[in-house]
Amino acid sequence: MRTTHTYDVTVQWTGNLGSGTDGYRSYSRDHEVRADGKAVIAASSDPAFRGDPARWNSEELLVASVAQCHMLWYLHFCAAGGVVVTDYRDHAHGVMTMDETGGGGRFTEVVLRPEVTVAEASTAEKARALHGDVPAVCFIARSVNFPVTHEPVIRVQQG
């Protein structure tokens, strides 16, 4: 039996500076991402495209989604496999390459760099290996058309 899940968000442009989009420089790229019962995400475009650097942009949110999905599946595999993780931090890196005309581009890769701390030294190698199980099940990584790789660092919790 096939199960579906749905996700509804509202994206509201808040960047009308008074004259709408009557010129490329006459409007802000600011917008808000909303979902019922959740905090609003203040967003904009990448600063390279006239966006506000203090706000999240869609490219950052895409990289974050890939990293979050990997982390959540990884933690699940660790819990099920007897690996006690006490800390997890990922310094994820995405690359978007513009086409020759500069009018469009696409993500060409995301590299996940999780730093994982485990409670027991005897589980460190299993902790490393479990990263390799995630790509087969991570919803987000399975949905994108660019490679997602990972370069984990495993540490053992100190005393």
UniProtKB/TrEMBL annotation:
Gene3D superfamilies in the record: 3.30.300.20
InterPro entries, sorted: KH_dom-like_a/b (IPR015946), OsmC/Ohr_fam (IPR003718), OsmC/Ohrsf (IPR036102), OsmC_Ohr_Peroxiredoxin (IPR052707)
Top-level taxonomic group: Bacteria
Alphabetized PANTHER family for the sequence: OSMC_OHR FAMILY PROTEIN, OSMOTICALLY INDUCIBLE FAMILY PROTEIN
Protein name: OsmC family protein
Lineage of the organism: Bacteria, Bacillati, Actinomycetota, Actinomycetes, Kitasatosporales
